[in-house]
Design a protein that fits this description.
Elements: H1 2-16, H2 26-38, H3 42-58, H4 62-78, H5 82-96, H6 103-118, H7 122-138, H8 144-157, H9 161-172, H10 178-197, H11 203-217, H12 220-236, H13 240-262, H14 264-272, H15 275-278, H16 281-336, H17 341-382, H18 387-417, E1 426-428, H19 430-440, H20 442-447, E2 451-456, E3 464-466, H21 468-484, E4 490-501, E5 504-513, H22 535-541, H23 547-557, E6 563-567, E7 571-582, H24 598-601, E8 605-609, H25 613-625, E9 629-633, H26 636-645, E10 650-654, H27 662-669, E11 678-682, H28 690-694, E12 700-703, H29 708-716
Parallel strand pairs: 2-4, 8-9, 8-10, 10-11, 11-12
Antiparallel strand pairs: 1-3, 3-7, 4-5, 5-7, 6-7
Helix pairs in contact: 2-3, 3-4, 4-5, 4-6, 5-6, 6-7, 6-8, 7-8, 8-9, 8-10, 9-10, 10-11, 10-12, 11-12, 12-13, 13-14, 16-17, 16-18, 17-18, 17-25, 18-23, 21-23, 26-27
Length: 720
């Protein structure tokens, strides 16, 4: 099987290696497609692939058009869009029929077989598998048997054990030589798994034959899975002693494989060690002790993180409770003391400011433990945890991300209320913006089986001037709400020109749905913080209740006013008008890409100045994950003295440090070191901003909690 993937990788590398990097070329589109797939932006990947196909068609590049159409079919297949995948794959076959035989054509035929297998069209799938085999045979390629093995595995996954067994038995009849030993061993292993599913005692025979063939190919990963299957088989037979023996051998092999990857000298040491020495009593004892220590550490970490989450939720509850008390007291005071209106108003403003500062402080301080929670969860998930632990870690990571979103929304509201938010004036294409938003929410619409349509007035000028980011926040929040509270219905987004004069355009936006609707007595409250109309709605649909608050405040900040019309059981309609400037120049939007490779980061020496021990551990783990070296200091004073005598590739500087803070330390370092990149690590609050931190001599800013991809991308920018 490995030869097939080596061949495919070599084929596509040679196919798309072009020196021309024009913005309208095969090389450009392939690079954009790969970046989109890497970032899991599948809608963008589809868009760039379709553009590449159009480019090939316009320039009569039939071979490239066939390859790009095949790639588009694979993208749809990986997104489980089987009908569209078949459509594109058949188009690619039509194009390949005009060209000489190639391995890519065989792969396209093979993928048609896979898709039909997924759709349970087994007869059609079998016909295309045979066509793929025929092409491979004509090209004298020996990968058809590998395809047969994959076909059998696919049939087994669909519980078609009879046809899968028939194919596997043909494979084990191949010549007994080194070329087919791995393939035959895999076939015996798959037959054993089928026998286990059928509760057939022949499973032990197949597993033993697979293990015997291992002696020829010496594939440790293959032996590992066979040994594990034997352990499971004997466990099911209640032969626990033998099952434990195989399980112990499996753990030894897995540990050995890890050591092989980590260092070559460990590989040499294990290579010299005799097989019987691996199974002695001392090794077993150490293996058991290691497993016990690891289990204990996992349990302890999970307990600590659970306590931390409970503490964070308690703090947030306290903040909300205090906020409600202040609001209630102020309302009573205003009703009872009309004569002291001015004094009461001042007190209310002070209370609001105190609430804002309190929530800002709490949100800011929570980012540091949240960074620990998210970081440790990320590290544990990537550290191959047990299956029984994985669901708890996934739940922990989800809770951490939810709290991060919650805190970000609180900070967003506080920034708006504190007038520390600026209005951008940039040129953008409104229609493109709305289409991109629609594409990004198609999956959410499909979850609740909603029809999602967009209507944009052609009279709206192509190039508007305004705050594109805040407009996106408003529209996204409104559409998200509509899709969440609507099932088996329709959500519509309308944008039409309301007025055009003096180089200004007023645009009317309306978002309507056929969802559950909002009662008359709750319609004013939905724009208040932490409000969702009723407790029942909150329990059923979830959410923070801050989305519409942000929408209202941003709309008012942009000079508009939002209106709501709703009827229970029939749906809701949110409408607003916003004014924009008109530009003669086209939009300069450039797709954002996050490109880095691990080789850029390897062996770089990083100095981390951080006083929080947990954050020290997390940051070190994340750096060492990419083969970087890390030294850690607790204070800015120590960092200044060390940097005078030692050269580092980069400095990661926490802003809040004991003694002199990170900004002052950076200023002093810049007096004698102008070149070493310094990146600020901070949980940005209302009183901090990116430009302010950069003014002290820092090159960039990474916000806590860390998002792994953004963390590595920011660092990699300075290592070209």
């Amino acid at each position: 099987m490995k030869y097939l993937f080596i061949f495919i990788s070599f084929y596509y590398t040679s196919l798309y290696s072009q020196t021309k990097t024009d913005i309208d070329s095969i090389s450009y589109y392939n690079k954009a497609i790969n970046v989109s797939l890497k970032n899991k932006q599948y809608d963008k990947a589809v868009l760039f692939t379709e553009r590449s196909i159009n480019y090939c068609q316009n320039h009569h590049l039939t071979e490239n058009q066939a390859n790009q159409t095949f790639k588009l079919g694979k993208i749809h297949y990986n997104q489980f869009n089987y009908d569209e995948a078949l459509k594109q794959l058949h188009k690619s076959i039509t194009l390949f029929n005009k060209l000489p035989l190639s391995a890519t054509k065989a792969l396209a035929l093979y993928y048609i077989g896979i898709v039909n297998t997924e759709k349970k069209n087994y007869e059609t799938a079998e016909a295309y598998y045979k066509k793929a085999d025929a092409v491979f045979n004509k090209l004298n390629l020996n990968d058809s048997q590998n395809l047969n093995l994959q076909k059998a595995i696919e049939l087994k996954s669909h519980k078609d054990y009879i046809l899968a067994s028939k194919i596997l038995k043909k494979i084990i009849q191949l010549p007994d030589n080194n070329n087919f030993s791995t393939l035959r061993s895999d076939a015996y292993y798959q037959l054993g798994l089928i026998a286990v599913q059928q509760k057939n005692d022949s499973a032990i025979v197949y597993f033993n034959k697979a293990l015997k063939l291992y002696q020829k190919n010496q594939n440790l990963k293959q032996k590992s899975k066979i040994i594990l299957a034997l352990s499971q088989y004997h466990k099911n037979k209640k032969d626990f002693e033998l099952a434990f023996s195989y399980l112990d051998e499996y753990q030894q092999i897995e540990n050995y494989i890890v050591k092989l990857k980590n260092a070559k000298f460990v590989f040499d040491e294990f290579k010299k060690t005799k097989k019987n020495e691996l199974l002695n009593d001392e090794f077993k004892r150490k293996s058991e002790e290691t497993a016990q220590v690891k289990t204990y550490r996992y349990s302890k970490l999970i307990s600590i993180l659970a306590i931390a989450l409970i503490s964070i939720l308690s703090l947030l509850s306290l903040a909300l409770y205090k906020n409600n008390i202040i609001r209630t007291q102020n309302n009573l005071l205003l009703k009872e003391k009309n004569k002291e209106l001015v004094i009461a108003k001042n007190k209310a403003e002070e209370a609001t400011k105190a609430r804002s500062e309190f929530l800002s402080t709490v949100s800011h301080e929570l980012r540091t433990p949240l960074n620990a929670i998210n970081g440790i969860a990320h590290i544990l998930i990537e550290d191959d945890p047990k299956e029984s632990q994985l669901k708890y870690l996934d739940s922990l990571q989800f809770s951490g991300n939810y709290l991060t979103t919650f805190i970000n929304e609180i900070l967003e509201i506080n920034k708006i209320e504190s007038t520390k938010i600026e209005i951008e004036k940039i040129t953008f294409d409104l229609k493109t913006l709305l289409v991109n938003i629609q594409n990004s929410l198609k999956e959410l619409a499909a979850v609740n089986n909603n029809h999602f349509k967009l209507e944009v007035d052609d009279a709206i000028p192509d190039n508007l001037i305004g705050d594109k980011t805040k407009l996106s926040q408003i529209i996204l929040n409104l559409i998200n709400n509509a899709l969440k509270f609507t099932q088996n219905g329709e959500v519509s987004v309308i944008a039409k020109l309301d007025n055009l004069e003096n180089e200004n355009a007023t645009v009317y936006f309306e978002i309507t749905d056929t969802g559950i609707g909002i009662p008359k007595d709750k319609q004013k409250k939905v724009f208040e913080s932490f409000s969702q109309g009723s407790v029942e709605v909150n329990r059923k649909y979830g959410g923070t209740g801050l989305g519409l608050t942000i929408v209202k405040k941003l709309t008012e900040l942009l000079g508009g006013k939002i209106k709501l019309q709703s009827e229970v059981g029939k749906g809701s309609s949110f409408s607003l008008k916003l004014s924009f400037g008109i530009s003669d120049k086209p939009s300069t939007d450039i797709p954002e890409t996050k490109i880095y490779n691990d080789y850029q980061l390897r062996n770089k020496l990083i100095l981390l100045i951080e006083d929080n021990k947990i954050n020290q551990m997390i940051t070190r783990k994340m750096l060492e994950k990419k083969s970087m070296n890390c030294e850690i200091l607790d204070t800015g004073e120590e960092a200044i003295e060390l940097i005078k005598t030692k050269q580092f590739d980069m400095i990661l500087m926490d802003v809040h440090l004991p003694g002199i803070n990170g900004t002052i330390a950076t200023q002093q370092i810049r007096e004698f070191d102008k070149t070493t990149p310094i990146i600020a690590l901070t949980a940005i609050s209302l009183d901090e901003n990116r430009d302010q931190l950069l003014s002290f001599g820092m090159n960039d800013v990474i916000t806590k909690p860390f998002v792994p991809d953004e963390f590595y991308s920011t660092i990699a920018k300075f290592f070209k």
